[in-house]
């Protein structure tokens, strides 16, 4: 029974932004599981709305049930009522997009975005998963994780997202130490080319890091002399959101 549950949950992780649809046999081959097992899992998920079969290709993709559960999660966090207005105020003050990245296991996941009103802006999507070792929004979380968790993340490999992604374990650990010491992170082109990020960590009531708040946009709009002001605005937003998070987490 537990093995079946493991397979069923593992199957969902194969549906990503890069690979949104799967045929039964190709998914079974990827998972190294019998196609009969995969078909039964997909058929059950389809019955409850967690996957659906695309009419033309006959391949499976995630279903609308996840939208409902995602909405419940965001309601539980009161994102729209309490956190988003602070993010929107920060986006208006800096004229750049503001992102809330949540720690989920050993990855980050974007839970909310307050977009810049400028025509050229950093395009990202709610629900996107990110690697914790690249980019300000991620590294400011990783910097506050226990050493054994950092080691486990590094052990999975430091794959390059761009030419500026740090791939040296020693350099990354030094960078994380510096971020933790100063309390914020700044990066340019580490996760996405020509995009800057300024990020601060958010903590639960037990003192453990749980998320990050980030200002991001085209790098040409954030020269070094503008960083201190943007950071000041971001830290003020952090204090507002932090007070709320520590009441509920």
From TrEMBL:
SMART domains: HTH_ICLR (SM00346). Gene3D superfamilies: 3.30.450.40, Winged helix-like DNA-binding domain superfamily/Winged helix DNA-binding domain. Residues 2-64 form the HTH iclR-type domain. Transmembrane segments: none annotated. Residues 65-247 form the IclR-ED domain. Keywords: DNA-binding, Transcription, Transcription regulation. It comes from the Bacteria. InterPro entries: GAF-like_dom_sf (IPR029016), HTH_MetabolicPath_Reg (IPR050707), Tscrpt_reg_IclR_C (IPR014757), Tscrpt_reg_IclR_N (IPR005471), WH-like_DNA-bd_sf (IPR036388), WH_DNA-bd_sf (IPR036390). This is IclR family transcriptional regulator. It comes from Brevibacillus composti.
């Amino acid at each position: 029974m537990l093995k079946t549950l493991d397979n069923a949950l593992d199957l969902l992780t194969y549906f990503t932004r890069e690979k949104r649809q799967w045929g039964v046999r190709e998914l079974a081959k990827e998972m190294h599981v019998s196609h009969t097992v995969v078909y039964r899992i997909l058929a059950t998920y389809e019955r409850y709305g967690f996957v659906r079969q695309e009419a033309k290709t006959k391949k499976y993709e995630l279903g609308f049930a996840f939208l409902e559960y995602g909405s419940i999660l965001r309601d539980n966090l009161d994102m729209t009522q309490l956190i988003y207005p602070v993010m929107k105020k920060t986006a208006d003050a800096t004229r750049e997009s503001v992102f809330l990245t949540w720690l989920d296991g050993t990855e980050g996941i974007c839970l909310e975005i307050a977009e810049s009103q400028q025509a050229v802006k950093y395009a990202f999507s709610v629900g996107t998963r990110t690697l914790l070792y690249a980019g300000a929004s991620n590294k400011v979380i990783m910097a506050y994780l226990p050493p054994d968790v950092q080691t486990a993340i590094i052990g999975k490999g430091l794959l390059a997202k761009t030419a500026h992604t740090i791939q040296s374990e020693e350099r990354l650990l030094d960078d994380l130490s510096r971020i933790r010491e100063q309390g914020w992170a700044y990066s340019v082109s580490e996760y996405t080319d020509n995009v800057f990020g300024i990020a601060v960590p958010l903590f639960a009531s037990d003192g453990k890091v749980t998320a990050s708040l980030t200002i991001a946009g085209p790098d040409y709009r954030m020269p070094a002399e503008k960083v201190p002001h943007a950071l000041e605005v971001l830290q003020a937003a952090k204090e507002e959101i932090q007070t709320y998070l520590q009441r509920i987490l």
